[in-house]
Amino acid sequence: MAFEFRLPDIGEGVAEGEVVQWFVQEGQTVREDAPLVSVLTDKANVEIPSPRSGRIVAIHAPVGQKVKVGGLLVTIATEGEEPPGAASLPKIATGAGTAGTSAPARAPSEHAAPPADRSERLPPSPTAVSTSPALSPAGRVLAAPYVRRLASERGIDLSRVRGSGPGGRVVEADLDTGPTASAPTPSPAPPPSTQGPPAPRGPGAKEANAVERIPIRGIRRAIAEHMAESVHRAAHFTYVEEVDMSELVRLRERMSKHVEKDGVRLSYLPFIAKGVVAGLKAHPGLNATIDDARGEIVIQSGYHLGIATATPEGLIVPVIRDAEAKSLAAIAREIHDLAERGRAGKLAREELTGSTFTITSLGALGGVLATPILNYPQVAILGVHRIFRRPAYRPDGSVGPADLMNLSVSIDHRALDGYDAAQFIATVKSRLEDPHQLFAEMA
């Protein structure tokens, strides 16, 4: 009998998800509880197992398509039976989760044109084995950015690695098996053109197919939509202040040997997080979200800090919950753990949602100044920039070296004024320039 599997409720408040990767193809047999499809929600990939054992009759949602909760994902023929009318079901070119090969699903009422060859109706042979990595339409080996980075670090040529993933995609485990003995199979030559010989090219002329088109999907699409919504809804205003980090630089150097003996590097970020908590306690209007639907500013009671983190797939914001109750060492360990698992794509949805304020920092690459975009619906975000050692005037009028850093806070001017931003930064600055205050407040 045929079983129609629909997108289940995969988390509180989740109304839809984007199909990121199919682990099966039409015509393939799947076991119950085996990986079926990966769906993206709130920048977290959720791997959904197969609810039944059987044969994949039709995949209704191609890679890149958004599906609402309850929307049809796939039809599975169970108990060896073929569902009525299965041969007429519309085919989806899934490419087993590869980018650029999917086509929009057509409504069941539409009739597809008959194939030119009967072989087009036959499912792919389950015994077929890929002898070379699958290539995208642009000729690139199909592999996730994370796998590409690992291959680059290990000096592995992906074009010589046999892909064991769906559709010949190279997965991380393939990197351990080493390159294949033979070079990848070349693509078949295109049919001869019927429009005559190509026009001669002059010196420096560019190839017509030199442009690569990358679909905006997965985390990158989530980022694009979220940032566009923030810019279109919020009235951004950015305030910048210079902070003398000299005392904190010396304190961190003394503390690092005690914290880092457990294998966790003590960066400046845990100190800044504690300074931010002090600023939010003194100015709770910045620890808030805005409810546009009801026209309300919602002041949050907890201090849950989102820490913007770069990953091979794009920017994510894991959350340090109840930061006010945690020590510097505990925050350092949690930042390290969330960043490592975030880069590996192993964070749960709950670890990426619920922040009340966001900190974004590029560390040593932090530059001089930036204007952060709000993590909507939050009303404030702090940008942390690089520490530069340069001459500065001291309170006694002398000139000497100082470790200086800029902080930039962006606010939603609908909910806050520039004066609020200045007051908040002043509080954070005072804690960072005299970091002993942080320990006095923790006592």
Indicate the topology.
Blueprint: E1 2-6, E2 16-22, E3 29-30, E4 35-41, E5 44-49, E6 54-59, E7 66-68, E8 72-77, H1 145-154, H2 218-233, E9 236-244, H3 246-259, H4 269-282, E10 288-291, E11 296-299, E12 305-307, E13 309-311, E14 314-316, E15 319-320, H5 328-343, E16 357-361, E17 380-384, E18 388-393, E19 399-412, H6 418-433, H7 436-442
Parallel strand pairs: 12-16, 16-17
Antiparallel strand pairs: 1-8, 2-4, 2-7, 3-6, 4-5, 6-8, 9-19, 10-11, 12-15, 13-14, 17-19, 18-19
Helix pairs in contact: 4-5, 4-6
Tell me about this structure:
With 443 residues, the chain is an alpha+beta fold. The protein has helices at residues 145-154, 218-233, 246-259, 269-282, 328-343, 418-433, 436-442, and strands spanning 2-6, 16-22, 29-30, 35-41, 44-49, 54-59, 66-68, 72-77, 236-244, 288-291, 296-299, 305-307, 309-311, 314-316, 319-320, 357-361, 380-384, 388-393, 399-412. Strands 9, 12, 15, 16, 17, 18 and 19 form a 7-stranded mixed sheet that branches. A 4-stranded antiparallel sheet has the order 1-8-6-3, with no helix packed on it. The longest helix is centred in the middle third of the chain and has 16 residues, at 218-233. The protein is globular and about 85 Å long. Residues 83-131 and 181-188 have low confidence and may be disordered.
